[in-house]
Amino acid sequence: xxxxxxxxxxxxxxxxxxxxxxxxxxxxxxxxxxxxxxxxxxxxxxxxxxxxxxxxxxxxxxxxxxxxxxxxxxxxxxxxxxxxxxxxxxxxxxxxxxxxxxxxxxxxxxxxxxxxxxxxxxxxxxxxxxxxxxxxxxxxxxxxxxxxxxxxxxxxxxxxxxxxxxxxxxxxxxxxxxxxxxxxxxxxxxxxxxxxxxxxxxxxxx
Length: 206
Fold this sequence. Notes:
globular, Aminopeptidase
């Protein structure tokens, strides 16, 4: 190993219990922009009561897993024993629940079988699963997103999916680099004068 090589962070995924949920919310409030974590909600910018309520409801609904009513599962990302952000898997296709996504899909800071009993429900049937991730500012640029994506790929494959899908924007350089490093095929959407240009990434799992 080269002396200049950075050590790989110890990244695991934790089930979002009520205690972990409140710690994760505290992390988001103090070390992430609301637009990176939640949809645009409320009449005021930034972290408002509507966004905070959405955050709690999102993770509570996701606790039931891919076969639950929300059709998705979320985890808290732990890096070297500290909470660093959150990641999810969600069913796609006509039967999937409408996306309840925060931010740019793979997160502004980057985009398992981890600790805390992380588990992906079976039954995808060889289709696609979508992932989304956000990282606190303090944990960006340290390889945490790359490790989290590696774990999510393993979870998606173990659930029977053949492709992992993620969405971001053309201006999210970090997310695009992360997806490319994972072997994603990128498709850029149409340019618009009023909206950011979307980019869809598909990562083969076979």
